[in-house]
Amino acid sequence: MSSSTDTADPAARPRHPEKAHRPDNPVARKPAWIRVKAPVSREYQDTLKLMRGLKLHTVCEEAACPNIGECWKHRHATFMILGATCTRACAFCNVATGRPGPVDGDEPRHVAEAVAELGLWHVVVTSVDRDDLSDGGAGQFAETIRRVRETSPTTTIEVLTPDFMKKPGALEIVIEAGPDVFNHNLETVPRLYPAIRPGARYFTSLALLAKAKDLAPDLFTKSGLMVGLGESREEIGQVMDDLRAADVDFLTIGQYLQPTAKHTAVDRFPPPEEFDAYAAQARAKGFHMVSSSPLTRSSYHAGDDFVRLRAARKAALGASV
Q1: Which of 170, 259, 281, 295 has the most CB atoms less than 10 A away?
Q2: Cβ-contact 158, 114 below 8 angstroms
Q3: How far apart are CA 91 and CA 256, in angstroms?
Q4: What is the mean pLDDT of residues 193-217?
């Protein structure tokens, strides 16, 4: 099977060629607490038109986020830079895998234009993994931050980056550009990495978060986990401890939702009260901000959460004086 590319006709290629040989995992029926309405609002259509006009990708679409209808109704979108084809093949992710096309030099400017048009006061910028690039795409993140700062100087900027594995100096490029929040998701517990994130390494991701805070001690750092992949509650607690040891400020916890029959099956759907218990546990461990619910995603309500995060850390610092 030939490799897919960003420049090939998306309709003419399989989205997940690396998963085609896998046996099907039936997609479980979702419980009532995570069913959402189809996106039909005028604002949704306007946001879609804007993205198409500027040739931009969003993680909202590419990762099949269940919150897209709600977020786009409020004209909140999470930008996915560096194309729509990832060099890795995580077992949970709906983003297409293959050989990416060239980096679009106009993309940072287009993101800045969209941020201004949408009137975003907080923007989240993420990307596919680009293991094919010498800097892992760090330069594109930095240029996007600079462009947004130029056109929307009061907008706060959150980046959700890859792990930049074997890309020395990449993290420094991003941090030097001055984002307000640095996010990198651990996604799951270390025991499940070989099956769920085979191209990543748990301690590489953990070290990235710790180094980001070392490079910029005042930077807000953030990470996220999915549940429903077969992890235990004890393992989730250990990951919380690891993140606090890395001085991570903000933790998000959400339900894994199986994108297709070729992806990892959902192990279970924890009820909302279990997410509440995780939130209480995380707060007790010292996180300044926790968002834990079945529909929580890294960028879901990110702007409102950032306001609360900033206030929480200020209060904690004041109490320690």
Answers
A1: 170
A2: no
A3: 11
A4: 97
